[in-house]
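ASSEMBLY PREDICTION REQUEST
Request ID: AP-0331
Submitted by: J.K., bench scientist
Number of chains: two
Total residues: 824
Priority: normal
Notes: Please return the full assembly, not individual chains.
Input sequences:
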Amino acid sequence: MVQAALAAGTASRRCVFELFGRRLPEGRRYGVVAGTGRVLDALEDFTFDPATLAFLEPLLDGPTLEHLAGWRFSGDVHGYAEGEVYTAGSPLMVVEGTFADAVVLETLLLSIYNHDSAIAAAASRMTMAAGGRPCIEMGARRTHEEAAVAAARAAYVAGFASTSVLAAGLRHGVPTAGTSAHAFTLLHDTEEDAFRAQVASQGAGTTLLVDTYDVAEAVRTAVAVAGPDLGAVRLDSGDLGATAAAVRAELDALGATGTRITVTSDLDEFAIAALAAAPVDGYGVGTQLVTGSGHPTCALVYKLVAREDADGVLQPVAKRSTGKTMVGGRKWARRRYDADGTAVAEVVGTGDAPPLGEHERDLLVPLVLGGEVVGREPLDAARERHARSRAELPIDAQKLSRGEPVLVTERV
Amino acid sequence: MVQAALAAGTASRRCVFELFGRRLPEGRRYGVVAGTGRVLDALEDFTFDPATLAFLEPLLDGPTLEHLAGWRFSGDVHGYAEGEVYTAGSPLMVVEGTFADAVVLETLLLSIYNHDSAIAAAASRMTMAAGGRPCIEMGARRTHEEAAVAAARAAYVAGFASTSVLAAGLRHGVPTAGTSAHAFTLLHDTEEDAFRAQVASQGAGTTLLVDTYDVAEAVRTAVAVAGPDLGAVRLDSGDLGATAAAVRAELDALGATGTRITVTSDLDEFAIAALAAAPVDGYGVGTQLVTGSGHPTCALVYKLVAREDADGVLQPVAKRSTGKTMVGGRKWARRRYDADGTAVAEVVGTGDAPPLGEHERDLLVPLVLGGEVVGREPLDAARERHARSRAELPIDAQKLSRGEPVLVTERV
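STATUS: Completed
Returned structure:
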């Protein structure tokens, strides 16, 4: 596309692309923006290096290779800030630049947003279902090795307390945590040997895995080895609610009243909610988190919504579609609240925005201006924003059942 | 775990870990091994660099940091060759080494295998449904940016003809292909301008996207611009079967009898099969491929199955489980055929394997010996192996409906 547009003289036309979803994944009440910080890092690093140009050489003509050799994105990006909730039709990113500049961002932006936002949306439902109990991200083994690091980051934005992926700690500053596996117990001649080895190395505050053989016996051994200050025990199988209750009673009887109980084993938001009344102190979540709990992608798209015509005038454009919501033109977007401060609508319009209403706030913030990243922020800022943004939603956002989006999209 | 085992003197115990799935994803008839080549590359690169060690420094003790600083995997890995089909209980990888060596591979091996094999399993169903028609991988925008490259590779192993991910061409030698987007048509003042620009740049053999405005008119314009030697047209919306029939008739009437029709638009194996009778020449598949068509992960696990005891004798070990198939001991595995050469069973055993039967073949091949990679092969070898291995399966493997695995697992 870039090569043909360069030759046709249209590559330099000023364009506006929009990143949005026509709808939320089926049944979901709200979406969660995640990946913004990763997009900004990737945009800064996005160049065509000599190895890439050598690979492209047989595919492209001379002027195109020359264009790419010196290319850096030099346009503007406005977008929803990371952690913000969104709904159908929310213009999550508005990218402005020449066609040649903006069109090559499509796969990069969509890949990061479709993945990270899918994980964050699932994570947000899980942390909501968990109430104040911490969720630990443990899904790295069930997804691509790099997606795992991004998933840990997105889960943290959506309220997870920590991750077992050390690389997410190294690269993104996500707090890390972990426990031992059954292999560690099986390695040793007895469960007691394994517990002694772990406590000697990690201290009594560690988390001992107690379901390799017999749970009740393992709990007795654990407290005998670590003492009543044992940090936690982990359950990874069986009926977690009933077992947690039995283990709590046993721990209390042994004087280990402060020892926490962490549960794992194919948890999702529904299983977490079902354990609300059980004496559980934390949830380790794996597969269902990193696969988006039924929705591994968000169906976000990147569409040209306006471009200069031959006279240099910016014109709205749109594909002719049946049944697809496709509105041309550069968008603005606001969240509208009712008098009680509950968010009720996403107001999306084109052209000049009217003055901001009393119960409204603007959603688009500058992320990149003239190719320079201006929207970078600490990951904790995104995490705090998500907590605030989610807290503003109507009470129906807390329903885990399938239903309609809680924010109505108003096009003006 | 490594730190505690080093201190306890158990880190050097010889161990056997096994990578396998307790079951196939629900309803699937067979699995497809993919990611083996990526695992071998990753194993060779797996060291703890100074930045990583600096990050780990506050978490680990001196002896552990020292151990990791010089660490390279020095054990053995045997496994199913890439592209091979598998079933429940197939020992896809058998890793032997010290505990400290083998335990740190868990996340790396499982991440790659759970992702790549999930994509390959979906891709195999799609290429089978497509019959001889080529499938093009186009899903990068709907998954993590690095997972996208691995997905393109896995899809190629399972019979896809090409990918739109140029990075998969650069890194893995997967053939690349692509078409233009609606944005390219919308960029230009008229559809004819867009087609002229594309044909001028790419030649008449290019693929023109004909559903931005009116399909029938676009097809007329396309042939008028490119001539009857136009390579292909792409349809990305509407009723693909009916539209393809109308476009085929129109192309033939215009003399463009050799122009192919490529269809895209949320295809999965079922939609591909439903188009079998339509005049379609190729399928572009995106979202459903990169998300594993309902099964984004394979639920493969990595378990300790044997380890030295205090006397240096290798002992089978297994967690005590209810309802989980968990067999201790180092496995061997063979595929058994009936007299007609149809594969019927996976024979999995422990201990010394009996002599190979007339209608059997061994499935485990050496991949890494003493830390040295010995199982590397060209990607096309894996692709050809998959085609052969799939062709041996019973006819029920071709059913897209949910059902039982076609290979029975026999434990001996």
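REVIEWER COMMENTS: Chain B has 15 helices and 19 strands.
SIGN-OFF: pending second reviewer
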